[in-house]
Amino acid sequence: MEASAPTPAGIGQIAARLDRLPVSRWHWKLTFLVGAAAFFDIYEIFLGGVLGGVLGQEWHLARAGKAGLIAAPFVGMIVGAIFLSAASDRLGRRRMFMVNLGVYSVLSLATAFSPNVTVLIALRLLSGVFMGAELILIDTYLSEFMPRLARGRMIAVAYVIGFVGTPVVALLGGFFVARSHFLWEGWRWLLVVGGLGALVVFVLRRRVPESARWLAEHGRAEEADRVVAEVEEAVRAQRGSLPPVHVDKPRPVRRVALADMFRPPYRNRTIMLWLFQLLQTVGQYGFASLVPVVLLAKGYDIVDSLGYTALTFIGAPVGAAIAVPLVERFERKYLIIGSGLATAAAGLLFGTATAPALIVAMGLIITMSNNVLSGAYHIYQAELYPTQVRSTAIGIAYSLSRLSAAILPFGGLALLASFGPIGVFVGSAALLVLMCVIVGALGPRSNGQSLEAVAHDDPGAPQAASHTAERSPARGRS
């Protein structure tokens, strides 16, 4: 069917119909299917630290070899975050969902057969390319389907599912690496688990619909209407009659180019998001990828190191779960700032700790606060740009986080060698404080508004209250 030009009324009608729906089993099912893929993205990221600790000893890797092994998927993610995210704006969210997960599954299985560290690093780099856009697509896709009053909560739930991958990879690492299984080194089984699990999710995900907002923006009004009608039918079957549709005043439809990201109203938020993404990885992935190596530097053996890592990583899904009610109760930008400062403070204590109990306690606080921050910013970044360029704009910003994450193992291991664990975490804390200042100064408010109102910076848009604060008057935007 030939696409027609999008109209303000058509786009506004689609958005209004989706935003007024009550949360139903249909929304929860979609959240689970999308969140299950986040599990494997996060599993892949946190696997780097485990492999670096295990193979650093088993293959007698020098510092550069260990850093390269940890950094490889992040380098691939730079490419994937930019180009595959842009492809989802041109070709559709659903299509790229399937491509990313399917190719990653095959590559992860192939990586398990790596004969040496060179092949292993090359294949993990390629795997990173196809996982690079996965979290961006999750943010984009769910934000475009979920009702505005539940948008933050549902995306946060998807990340609860995703961050279960954090302790799982550490627990499996502790189990597998201590011995061989079926005449095969244990670390290879970690890659097999990731590849086969992603393949199962790929099969389950085949029937998810294309984003109705994306279809409407690309002039495919009939398809968008059909998708929304199917969603409404599913919700009506569970929840009964639906609320009436209230369409906001139509905004002029115009093509938004990437160059517009550096013009008002997007310029400040683009600068904020780029700097934020460069810095947030210090807490989020710097700790996760280096903690097994840091614990080895503190004098623990590989089995104890992975055991303590697994205990600290339990905080990841716990923190993501804590974020679920918080992301609608508090402004997203302030939640990012508060959790970032908590990570910085706990990191300083982790760096100086020698007692196992204190190491585990501070590690738990770091991972919990990190994942409150993660739950908040994944929602927040998806709210800042129009549908036409949403995936591309946040993909470019997100690629900067992959760049800094790729550099972190080299810088972190150099700091560790020169100044010990305390040097690593003092530097991390300073960068996280800078991140919080930038978000506070440049970030807009977004809670409870339609995507279109936030993206177009419409001061006349209604400030809807959240589910958890419906009795309070809504606040204005900054």
Topology:
Layout: H1 8-19, H2 25-58, H3 63-91, H4 93-111, H5 117-131, H6 134-145, H7 151-163, H8 165-176, H9 186-204, H10 212-217, H11 221-239, H12 267-297, H13 302-313, H14 315-329, H15 332-352, H16 356-382, H17 390-442, H18 451-455
Helix pairs in contact: 1-11, 2-3, 2-6, 2-7, 2-8, 2-9, 2-12, 3-4, 3-5, 3-17, 4-5, 4-6, 4-9, 6-7, 6-16, 7-14, 7-16, 8-9, 8-13, 12-13, 12-16, 12-17, 13-16, 14-16, 15-16, 15-17
Unreliable stretches (pLDDT < 50, length at least 5) are: 458-478
Helix percent reads: over 70%
The CATH first-level class comes to Mainly Alpha
Q: What is the CA-CA span between the terminal residues?
A: 42 Å
The succession of helices and strands, N to C, reads: HHHHHHHHHHHHHHHHHH
CATH architecture: Up-down Bundle
- Counting DSSP H or I runs of 4 or more residues, the number of helices is 18
- How is the main sheet built? none
How much strand?
under 5%
**Would you identify the CATH H-level superfamily?**
MFS general substrate transporter like domains
